[in-house]
Amino acid sequence: MTGKISINGARLRADLEALGRIGAVPGGGVSRTSFSAADAQARAWYRARCAEAGLRLEVDGIGNMFVSAPDEPEEFAARPAVWSGSHIDTVPNGGRFDGALGALAALECVRRLHEEKVPLARPVRAVVYSDEEGNYAHLLGSSALVRGFTRAELEALTGRDGDRFVDTFVTAGWDLERATRTRVDPGRVHATVELHIEQGPQLERLGHQIGVVTAIVGLGGGSVTFHGRADHAGTTPMTMRSDALVGASALIVQLPEIARSVSDRAVITAGIISVAPGGANVVPETATFSLDFRDLEQARVEELARAITAAAHEVAQRYGLRVDVDLGPSIPPCQLDSRIQRIIADAAAARGLLASHLPSGAGHDSQNLARLAPTGMIFVPSVDGRSHCPEESTAWDDVENGANVLLDTIVALAGS
Ligand code: GLV
Ligand code: MN
Ligand code: MN
């Protein structure tokens, strides 16, 4: 290679704008939850971009997509590869950059390396991971790669809309048996790097263009269900009720205090709530809400789980209810690779960009991939620190800077 190459900023912008139109909803948001019709449309669009660029696309059993140059000799293609990617699913009414930026910037990097025939010592793969946002399970695709899922585990997954994962998956034409066989041999991966929007306010406050991510939070989650008794809303005196929603509400208002009692970084969110039988004139018999809790230390994630469970039982007793606390396995926090952090910081400096080190409060597939191979993440600023909402935005200059730092990092990792 004679000099440093750069990404094509106009092409990356056009791609981000085009993908942002798939699943767009009134009000400026994007609803492209995994395995929805919009997700299928986005996958087809991505496949067409790869074909247009003359790249090879392979899809594994859980729907992760892997892109490579078409002309790699067999011996070269068999070497441990550098992976870069993110996700193209979104939360309901989410934004245009979360996941899309890292997925499309990685595609742009592979496209540029292929166009320029950059000589590399090992292959590079652009990757799109399935269901990062957890319509069915948070980080589903990368979890399948690192630990696999049994058929029973997949059968137990339900979506935000109450549908069963296996029904939606099979109806959409996917093969359940193949999904259970999805795993990757760690020896296949040399290193991974993901570009992402920060989704918080730090870089913007500092006036820095690049974030070198040091660590990613651990995530716990599940659901809490209070069981009471359905009764007539007009005739049942307040003293004779077992109102499940009153119990759920009493616990939900305690969550901020529980988080504070564990650490000043701990967060707990109840983002979905449902009540049955769901009549305006019926005392709620059951009330279920989702839980998402996070901290940078695994011991504190476990402490959050214990504190929420204890509080749920105390509330149930206070209101004469029964409660089930159903917590799934947590995803551990991780430290990102220090050598890759140095490569990212050097790449930013070489392009004259200001960079700072910071941890990620959002979950990312990179925390699973860090169990396979040395892993790094690059952040770019989020306007007003907003994300998971229609207002989510990143300046186009920041998009281009981040993608160029990604390209330099990939070349450093794959070049020697
Ligand atoms: C992913 O966006 C998450 O942190 O929930
Ligand atoms: Mn994301
Ligand atoms: Mn997200």
Describe the structure.
With 416 residues, the chain is α/β, with parallel strands linked by helices. It is built from 14 helices and 14 strands. The strands form two sheets. Strands 1, 2, 3, 4, 5, 6, 12, 13 and 14 form a nine-stranded mixed beta sheet that branches. Strands 7, 8, 9, 10 and 11 form a five-stranded antiparallel beta sheet that branches. Strand 3, helix 4 and strand 4 form a beta-alpha-beta unit. Helix 4 packs across helix 14 and helix 12 packs across helix 14. It starts with 8 loop residues before the first helix and ends with a helix. The model has no long low-confidence stretch (mean pLDDT 97). The structure holds glyoxylic acid (GLV) and manganese (II) ion (2 copies). One manganese (II) ion binds next to loops.
